[in-house]
Amino acid sequence: MNQDYIKPDNWSIIEEGFDINKVKSSESLFSIGNGAMGQRANFEEHYSGPTFQGSYIAGVYYPDKTRVGWWKNGYPEYFAKVLNAPNWIGINVSIDGEALDLFNCLKIENFRRELNMKEGWLSRSFKATLQNQTQINVETKRFLSLDIDEIGAIEYHVTPLNKDAEIQFYPYLDSGITNEDTNWDDKFWDVLTVEHDDNQAFIMSRTMKTHFYVCTSMQTYLSLNGTILNQDKIVEERDNYIEFQYQNKVIKGDTLTLTKFGGYTVDRNHDKKELCSVAKRTLNEVSKLGFHALLDLQKNSWAKIWEMADITIEGDVKAQQGIRFNIFQLNQTYLGKDAQLNIGPKGFTGEKYGGSTYWDTEAYCIPFYLATKDQKVARNLLEYRYRHLDRAIENAQKLGFKNGAALYPMVTMNGEECHNEWEITFEEIHRNGAIAFAIYNYHRYTGDYSYIPEKGLEVLIGIARFWHQRATFSTLRNQYVILGVTGPNEYENNVNNNFYTNYVAKWCIDYAVENIERIEAEYPSDFIRIMNKVKLSKAELSQWKAVADNLYFPFSEEHNIYLQQDGFLDKELITVADLDQSQRPINQKWSWDRILRSPYIKQADTLQGFYLFEDHFTTEELERHFDFYEPFTVHESSLSPCVHSIQAAKLGRMEQAYTFYLRTSRLDLDDYNHEVHEGLHITSMAGTWMSIVEGFGGMRIKNGVLSFSPKIPKQWKTFSFKINFRNQILKVNVCQNETHFELDGTAALNILVNDKLVTIHPNSLVTV
Amino acid sequence: MNQDYIKPDNWSIIEEGFDINKVKSSESLFSIGNGAMGQRANFEEHYSGPTFQGSYIAGVYYPDKTRVGWWKNGYPEYFAKVLNAPNWIGINVSIDGEALDLFNCLKIENFRRELNMKEGWLSRSFKATLQNQTQINVETKRFLSLDIDEIGAIEYHVTPLNKDAEIQFYPYLDSGITNEDTNWDDKFWDVLTVEHDDNQAFIMSRTMKTHFYVCTSMQTYLSLNGTILNQDKIVEERDNYIEFQYQNKVIKGDTLTLTKFGGYTVDRNHDKKELCSVAKRTLNEVSKLGFHALLDLQKNSWAKIWEMADITIEGDVKAQQGIRFNIFQLNQTYLGKDAQLNIGPKGFTGEKYGGSTYWDTEAYCIPFYLATKDQKVARNLLEYRYRHLDRAIENAQKLGFKNGAALYPMVTMNGEECHNEWEITFEEIHRNGAIAFAIYNYHRYTGDYSYIPEKGLEVLIGIARFWHQRATFSTLRNQYVILGVTGPNEYENNVNNNFYTNYVAKWCIDYAVENIERIEAEYPSDFIRIMNKVKLSKAELSQWKAVADNLYFPFSEEHNIYLQQDGFLDKELITVADLDQSQRPINQKWSWDRILRSPYIKQADTLQGFYLFEDHFTTEELERHFDFYEPFTVHESSLSPCVHSIQAAKLGRMEQAYTFYLRTSRLDLDDYNHEVHEGLHITSMAGTWMSIVEGFGGMRIKNGVLSFSPKIPKQWKTFSFKINFRNQILKVNVCQNETHFELDGTAALNILVNDKLVTIHPNSLVTV
């Protein structure tokens, strides 16, 4: 653990006391979002200290100049990045002629921030003594509406404490923003119009190159002690900026409040010519409703999300806070409403990783959304990839593959690859496996086969074709091999026969064949339609099978384990426990060659295969592999601890499982990786959820039957979670000695508990 | 072969006829240089067609912004690049008010370019009909003085042919230049002063960041039919530009000539405050001498170079032209006068590879300079690395090595690494071996051991320390291994146990130990001095030996060959002959992953080891390895054909040797790799020399004795070369049935010819 300033609390993230060294960290941790937009917890008023300003709109990106020293054939021309969007939250404040700036106050007392996860709002309060000796109390509250997701709201209260004071508010819109990670201070937005109308203002801007149109808007009003003032204002307008200026003399003890509504309308949802008029309508609507009514809607909407997605833990506030923080952030990032969107690794909390789609979605996020939302949400995530199939085929063509073989990009915004490191872009091809597995997982969980004949099979065929062509025949081994790959452990590059990659490749082909046969038998018209499209011959199919049936898996007789890759045993096998702590994290301390020749594993690799295909292996096999690989694992990927927590729990190693759980659930709150200032690890948060539900809860689907083998860390009194299983809600409450099941649905549900069949009837409690 | 427009000629490179599509190619091929500066064969007058302008000053570089998508620990902060220097050759010409521009003439006849290699000058002549119907004849001659290497000279003759004409000359200096390979149009030069004095002009400029000071200067005068005119001129001066304007009415048939001297004085050679006054003095000196006297000096100086370095081939003009072109360009690039300089892969002919020092110098160029120059030249090249030893130690430290281990950079200008691809920068570590081998080679050839106790041993110790620390112990094999390297074949990255790398590593340790022991015994005071400096204990020495004595070399029992690397036999072993020609060159057609998993070899790798350590292996072993590896070799590196030519000759495969010879010697003239427009392959030109002297001549040093096993391609009547062996000049003339030896020296020389001892007495011909 590397920081410990967040107050433990069951429902809120709370910071007390102002520390300029924690501003960027808190800007990440207190981020808010509503699926359509999100923002770091930047102050509304100007702050001249170190800060990382960020406001983001879902699906709005920019193809930045590719930065590569040495070009390789096949690299994408551009590198997509999430764009910092125009600022609508800004409210500068001046007190008796001095700008309020927390970096320059004489004294700041009672500083407190709260991110209320139960109700979905962010607040801040403090007492400031300015350089001019005026003392004020400030309270702000802000949220991004789940109900009207193009809008957010802010209330900003100022109360002079030691004297009457002249208070000026300058709420503004600013489209002159840039990215923190920009090369060479490029701008990414062209401003088209800056307008205002009464107490509303609008900036129409357009991203360069991608030409996303966005109207950023605001509406503001002033009130004194809760009564709206009909106040004159000055309008200051510049190229890419508009500001309203309000001035008021406020008597000591009175509270002047600026209320601001604002947000974005984007041309993904509206005709671009109507963005400003839509914004105007929306502002009219919410201002008629008012801040508090909109906040009440917000509370209701979050209550509905929690009703379905909450996990409770009794007896361990930090663990409780951790899991709720993870669930809250996931829901802030992606709500599944729009199949054009996906889940970026940093969500709306930072710029790193370009905000794009990674295999994280399929490998980590889909189980969470499957179990906590309507199944349409997971299906939307699958369709996102179906919609990109043609581009995945083009991508494979660029790398020399033929005949409809599909390689999904490592990183993407619109289906095109937008990453350019050869060892990742060209070689971390296991991502294709996760995309096929997600289809299997969706069907396994929901029982809804319809997606596969409708859309999924084409994806499976493209992927199977890729694996068939990617394998080569080794005369030496008389088997097929897959050379030159990077596995999930990115601390090895260009290795041969990565077990995970080979295993998932074989599985992809087998699964595609199985589904082709089923669809031929059960969905003949779909079968004909698909075959006409993909032109798959029996000869090609049997070539696939030849590869799948005779693929090589590196195995050590000595250790009785599958090898991570051909050369693994050549390494100096010094465990992490024996590695000098001063060398950690190795990705910050070591040059890349040293990392590559070391045995250290960034995240589950062979064990990732044992996680996905758990039922292909015995528990003894899992234990042997876990005991071999985990000691070399440095868990320097946010995606690592969750898988290990699940497996440790399965192996009955509850202390270890608990340690991994804390690490995954409080990764950002406690800043394990020294990087929370860059943003949160959103996609790994779904892994946290898995580590409770699949790890401690032991939830699996076995032949279509929901199955549990509940375990509980000794630190906890009880924990509970709910899952949506085939449109019924099952609540599972695990105590130290028993587990309770409760079903909110209409039909009795047979489940397995520790491999014994238990029937749960609707609305009756079953204790096991 | 991909182009064929250069006229075969024994001594000159000749182009006839003007073709805008060949301009960039000819700009490279007709480049001139004098070791201190060089330039592409750009026209003096403005040319508005496609052109690649380039003028370069030895040792003047710029640390450009590193371009990397994903930063890796240990990468250098900057990427050094050769800088395009201010233009001093420019002479714009206007005829009857129309600018002469070969891209826009109505007609160009009798266009001819000649690079006279015997005398070291470049000429151009043509008859042009301008848009205004005026016909002129133009003749130009240009050279960069070997004798006064800060100066070059140009004569530019214009003769109106069909009418009297108004001729204007605008000789200029321009410091407002940029690089062809610049990112984002950056400028690299700050201009400090622009001055003129009578008919001389000076621009003082300074490179940004590196702060190299350069005075670019010119002096011009006009003559009519050979008589100097005392002509008024106008001076036009701008920020970074100065131009003289001469105007003359010239009667049809008369010839107006502009003579221009110009060049650079640099602060590597002079106090920076005196650069302009030195330039002034030099201009005064050469203008007093005059163009033709300076040209006479030039002819004499080149005659001296050829006297020593020439290789003659009778019966094959193209082969003759090829080898002279290679020898000429090498001498234009590096003359060994300045130990601060080295040999960039493109010399002064282009920007690619940043003009920096690669292992090419040690592996390819040193044998050429050893045999064709005084041994001080090769020693200067060794000292270049000695001077960089501290930085090589720092470089190794950045990668986690300790205790004085040295890793020389892959690419450097000043000793610091300036390349950033992890698979090259961090993993192509065999370069360290070439640097040690050059020391061995120097001693073997010259018999001068003094360099090793004086300087070389420290380098050898730093390198041995690196190899000792870089090897790791494999419990599996019970041997030391070297994991994660890139061998000379850059078409495999991050492989384990590259045979060449392992072999050179072991040799480096053994050679360092051998020299430590010899110096301890024979040079006790040097020994004490060095040991005090490097702090080498007996314990460390025995650790080195443990690694060298128990290092693993991958070997295939089945094929009875050493394997290029552990995984080589897992590849699909389809030979180049069976590869579809449409896929060639693979580095332009295939994505990187596909290249990496293919068996195709860019340049000699295992065979490079057999080349350097030929006497460690039998001819049968060489033959077996040659037969195994050459069929997979695509020779897509300029450094590839020469080694294979030498080995094919040794194996008596003269047809193959001859084919490889043509490919290496005419690589640029015939543009085998479709890239001559980017510049010439200077360092591989030394390989061409080796393929004649070591290949066909079979020259070796065996236990200090010069040895030959002459062979001659059937296409040749005879060929001859000279070598400087320990301060005596031996001329070797190989005919189809006999070989003649002639010694220019003072002492009889025992040599081996086909392993038989032959004594050559000074100034008497011996025929074998």
Automatic annotation (TrEMBL), chains A, B:
<dbReference type="InterPro" id="IPR011013">
    <property type="entry name" value="Gal_mutarotase_sf_dom"/>
</dbReference>
<dbReference type="GO" id="GO:0016757">
    <property type="term" value="F:glycosyltransferase activity"/>
</dbReference>
<comment type="similarity">
    <text>Belongs to the glycosyl hydrolase 65 family.</text>
</comment>
<dbReference type="InterPro" id="IPR005196">
    <property type="entry name" value="Glyco_hydro_65_N"/>
</dbReference>
<dbReference type="Pfam" id="PF03632">
    <property type="entry name" value="Glyco_hydro_65m"/>
</dbReference>
<feature type="binding site">
    <location>
        <begin position="359"/>
        <end position="360"/>
    </location>
    <ligand>
        <name>substrate</name>
    </ligand>
</feature>
<dbReference type="GO" id="GO:0030246">
    <property type="term" value="F:carbohydrate binding"/>
</dbReference>
<protein>
    <submittedName>
        <fullName>Maltose phosphorylase</fullName>
    </submittedName>
</protein>
<dbReference type="GO" id="GO:0005975">
    <property type="term" value="P:carbohydrate metabolic process"/>
</dbReference>
<feature type="domain" description="Glycoside hydrolase family 65 N-terminal">
    <location>
        <begin position="14"/>
        <end position="267"/>
    </location>
</feature>
<dbReference type="InterPro" id="IPR005194">
    <property type="entry name" value="Glyco_hydro_65_C"/>
</dbReference>
<dbReference type="Pfam" id="PF03633">
    <property type="entry name" value="Glyco_hydro_65C"/>
</dbReference>
<dbReference type="InterPro" id="IPR012341">
    <property type="entry name" value="6hp_glycosidase-like_sf"/>
</dbReference>
<feature type="domain" description="Glycoside hydrolase family 65 C-terminal">
    <location>
        <begin position="699"/>
        <end position="759"/>
    </location>
</feature>
<dbReference type="InterPro" id="IPR037018">
    <property type="entry name" value="GH65_N"/>
</dbReference>
<dbReference type="InterPro" id="IPR008928">
    <property type="entry name" value="6-hairpin_glycosidase_sf"/>
</dbReference>
<feature type="binding site">
    <location>
        <begin position="602"/>
        <end position="603"/>
    </location>
    <ligand>
        <name>substrate</name>
    </ligand>
</feature>
<feature type="domain" description="Glycoside hydrolase family 65 central catalytic">
    <location>
        <begin position="324"/>
        <end position="690"/>
    </location>
</feature>
<dbReference type="InterPro" id="IPR005195">
    <property type="entry name" value="Glyco_hydro_65_M"/>
</dbReference>
<dbReference type="GO" id="GO:0004553">
    <property type="term" value="F:hydrolase activity, hydrolyzing O-glycosyl compounds"/>
</dbReference>
<dbReference type="Pfam" id="PF03636">
    <property type="entry name" value="Glyco_hydro_65N"/>
</dbReference>
<dbReference type="InterPro" id="IPR017045">
    <property type="entry name" value="Malt_Pase/Glycosyl_Hdrlase"/>
</dbReference>
<feature type="active site" description="Proton donor">
    <location>
        <position position="490"/>
    </location>
</feature>
